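Backbones bend. We report:
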Amino acid sequence: MTPANLQFMCGFLRKRSGLVIAADKAYLIESRLNPVARRLGYASIDGMIETLRAMRSPTLEVAVVEAMTTNESTFFRDRLPFERLKVSILPRLLSARAETKRLNIWCAAASTGQEPYSIAIILKEMEAQLRGWRIDILGTDISAGVIEKAKAGIYTQFEVQRGLPIQQLVRNFTQEGEIWRLDAGIRAMVQFRQFNLLDDFAGLGTFDIIFCRNVLIYFDRETKTQVLDRIAKAMAPDGALLLGAAETIIGLTESLRFMQGERGIYEPVNQAAERSSPPRAAVG
């Protein structure tokens, strides 16, 4: 790959997906894009990039971005966020929404679906408590390919044994030869759509709980701030945001703050202000 094409690719990927790749990571671009170039009939990766530079080809652009996107995911990844969801976040919000009986949950960068389906499994286990409730789970990802895999709810033996306890596996999946198919009822609890975190959030709605885990680490500082500020605007005033273990809001945004007593969970500042402000004196 020529230096000019490397520079172009770094800029292209940052603009289209927020992905930041340093110039010394040329091997990463080459290792992921060489198979794409071969599949699309190009003699070399440089030939494919020259086409990308010379003409606007949505199909080629999507193929390149999807090849460069990391789609690592497991069921109940890191465990702690899902434990806090079950024992802390959900009980608080269920109490606060007792009249409306409605919750909206968003999993950004949902990859192949393990994260939103893990949430759905937790909710199914609370089925008796949630009778009469409407809980919508939205899973989004920049990659159309992984969204289609997520919708199918079909996983390999390797994928289901990563983070999924055996009791939950046999209760919620059916083995079909070498693959495991997720229960149709749990699949129906999650809606998936393709979405780029660099785009406008206006059409998504307002969410009580947002999982945006292990994606900000791939963005530069400016993009992290922009995404976090948009997330804050998409949250209910008493909503909760869960980030990855290696991610933080420190020094990035004033729209969010740590939720008191919780690790790795954040809330909008308007809610934080209500908790910290003294009661107003009566007037008149």
Remarks:
- The chain has two domains: 3-68, 80-274.
- The chain has twelve helices and ten strands.
